[in-house]
Design a protein that fits this description.
The complex is a heterodimer of chains A (281) and B (298).
Chain A: H1 2-13, H2 16-43, H3 55-60, H4 67-72, H5 75-96, H6 99-104, H7 110-147, H8 156-184, H9 188-211, H10 217-220, H11 224-236, H12 253-277
Helix pairs in contact in A: 1-7, 2-5, 2-7, 5-8, 5-9, 7-8, 7-12, 8-9, 8-11, 8-12, 11-12
Chain B: E1 5-14, E2 17-27, E3 32-36, H1 43-50, E4 58-63, H2 71-74, E5 77-80, H3 92-103, H4 108-116, H5 132-144, E6 150-154, H6 162-177, E7 181-186, H7 189-195, E8 198-203, E9 206-212, H8 213-217, E10 221-227, H9 229-236, E11 242-245, E12 248-252, H10 258-267, E13 271-278, H11 282-297
Parallel strand pairs in B: 3-7, 3-8, 5-6, 6-7
Antiparallel strand pairs in B: 1-2, 1-4, 8-9, 10-12, 10-13, 11-12
Helix pairs in contact in B: 4-5
The chains are: A mainly alpha (281), B alpha/beta (298).
Chain lengths: 281, 298
């Protein structure tokens, strides 16, 4: 099992697409968390981009005390989509290249191979989360130093909780990508379906339910994106007005946590069950 | 001698299509077994079943004494099924490294197999930049990584140039002479005839023959043109069964006795104008068997 895990990590480490996705997530976080707000801050209140928000508020949003908001605020939607793509390319690639048959004719069983892939993906997602956090922290330190802002950090436990919550959100979307890849034995279709779901359908469904069918709100409250947004909202403690797209208090933090864990378990079990039972052709 | 692979009544059905239909197959320890058949005959499906990639619909399959796909069986089996499927973005060396990790094989074995297939110089290049022949050789290296007792190779000479094919034949012969058991599927009948001890021929999912190569090719004969023919016929009858075709006589006798046959004929006052051995090539047998089968089916 350890050998299989090392092999999976080697594959991820050497695959440029994995780092391109990480880079995209990092750049998006920095652009939306720091670059655009800083441009708004630097150009003053008169700029319509700031929408009348006081400059001091904009600056506060970029200081170390809000580093968690900027690190994981984009996870439910944008970084989540990237994590889904990661899961789909890693598992779907085994089908399109035919490498699944090569690794399944080595010593480990199918369950062990899939478990190693999940563990390696979990490791890579942790690297993503820590990497984005480090970059956001550096930006916030730089801005605080440049603008004489306060250097107050969230409590270590809050940081840990926030990063763990962010990791769970990305892991859930990543596992969704893997189960779609196993189902379709492909890369392109799972990415297409998954990304359309995250970026469009869930938001649309939630909107329709809220405005037209409020009695069906319980249904939208079990959707993965809703719970991802709720968990991020809960662990960051951000104000509703500051929340980025997809982050809202639809359900409580505890319920969101359990729902996301359940999704992770369902996706992993479905992928394992299908992989173990199906012929590899 | 216990067989390394024992297959009886193997059937694989995909919906209405019967890909493998009641195949019996036995591979003995230390032999090089050729698995022949036209495209779509069921060769690769059978090999996939033997490596645990697909489950049979019915039938008994034992590989190295166990069920195919079990970890202990896979640990003693090296295989390359259909084509070398490796990671295009990794170098040849990294591909073998990660397979060594999966198979729990010491790293020093990687250099040994790279040397064996003559890829040491290109080991650090990406797999995607390899020629078809190099990919094929790396696939064989991957199959040999575990130093396996049983090697299953599906069309290992695909894409190789003549020199590469010669090297591959030599490698497979070496594997066989090392005491390893090799199950080889191939379209190249001449190649199988040169390398294999026994062959099985599959057609339309059914096994139509399984014999030693020599048995399959049948009795060898000497073709003789001699006058007077009737007298020659009587003399040759002392060596074996004689058949007459047009103006030649064919006697079933070991071609190595050709000089002796010639001497006896000449001493009997018979003029010999032609004497040659004739052997049925495996290719002839293959086409006979597979076309008969088609005729039966049709």
């Amino acid at each position: 099992m350890l050998g299989s895990y090392r092999a999976e990590v080697l594959k991820l480490r050497k695959r440029s697409a994995v780092w391109v996705l990480f880079g995209a997530g990092l750049v998006l976080s920095l652009i939306f968390g720091y670059l655009l707000p800083y441009l708004g801050y630097a150009t003053g209140d008169e700029n319509p981009q700031t929408d009348g928000i006081p400059r001091s508020e904009i600056l506060r949003g970029m200081l170390p005390e809000r580093v968690l908001d900027n690190t994981i605020g984009g996870y439910p939607i944008f970084a989540g989509a990237l994590a889904l793509v990661l899961g789909a390319i890693v598992v779907g690639g085994e089908y399109t290249w035919g490498t699944l048959k090569t690794i399944l004719t080595q010593r480990p069983g199918r369950g062990a191979v899939l478990a190693s892939q999940f563990l390696a993906l979990a490791t890579m997602i942790a690297v993503w989360v820590l990497g984005i956090f480090a970059a956001c922290a550096l930006c916030s330190i730089g801005i605080a130093a440049a603008e004489n802002g306060a250097m107050n950090w969230p409590a270590p436990l809050d940081i840990l909780q926030g990063l763990a919550g962010g990791w769970l959100v990305l892991m859930m979307w990543c596992l969704a990508g893997t189960v779609l890849a196993v189902a379709f034995r492909n890369v392109a279709l799972p990415i297409g379906l998954g990304v359309v779901w995250i970026l469009g359908i869930e938001t649309l469904l939630a909107g329709v339910v809220n405005s037209l069918l409020p009695d069906l709100e319980f249904l939208s409250d079990v959707l993965p994106g809703t719970n991802a947004g709720s968990l991020v909202f809960s662990v960051t403690g951000m104000a509703t007005a500051d929340a980025p797209p997809g982050v809202r208090d639809a359900v409580g933090g505890g319920r969101a946590l359990l729902t996301l864990l359940a999704y992770c378990a369902i996706f992993a079990v479905l992928a394992a069950w299908t992989t173990r039972r199906r012929d590899v052709t | 001698m216990d067989a390394l692979i024992e297959v009886s009544g193997l059937t694989k059905r995909y919906g209405d299509t019967l890909a493998v239909d009641g195949v019996d197959l036995t591979v003995l320890p230390g032999e090089v077994y050729g698995f022949l058949g036209p495209n779509g005959a069921g060769k690769t499906t059978t090999l996939r079943i033997l490596t645990g990639l697909i489950a049979p619909t019915s039938g008994d399959v034992r590989v190295l004494g166990g069920a195919p796909g079990r970890a202990d069986v896979l640990g003693r089996t090296g295989s390359m099924i259909e084509s070398p499927a490796l990671y295009p973005y990794l170098s040849g060396l990294d591909n073998l490294r990660l397979l060594a990790e999966y198979a729990e094989v010491p790293r020093k074995r990687i250099n040994e197999v790279l040397e064996l297939v003559d890829l040491t110089d290109r080991a650090r290049d990406r797999f995607s930049t390899y020629s078809l022949g190099m990919k094929q050789r790396l696939g064989v290296a991957a199959a040999l990584l575990k130093d396996p007792e049983l090697v299953i190779l599906d069309e290992p000479t695909n894409g190789l140039d003549p020199a590469g094919m010669r090297d591959m034949r030599r490698l497979i012969r070496e594997l066989g002479s090392d005491g390893r058991t090799v199950l080889l599927s191939s379209h190249l009948l001449g190649e199988v005839q040169q390398i294999c001890d026994r062959v099985g021929i599959i057609n339309s999912g059914r096994m139509v023959a399984e014999h030693n190569v020599e048995e399959l090719r049948g009795e060898q004969e000497l073709v003789i043109r001699a006058t007077p023919r009737n007298k020659a016929h009587d003399v040759l009858a002392g060596f074996g069964t004689v058949h007459q075709y047009d103006d030649t006589l064919r006697v079933q006798v070991d071609p190595q006795r050709a000089a002796e046959v010639n001497r006896v004929l000449v001493e009997a006052g018979i003029e010999v104008s032609e004497l040659r051995s004739t052997e049925r090539a495996l290719e002839d047998v293959f086409f006979e068997l597979t076309s008969e089968e088609k005729a039966d089916v049709g």
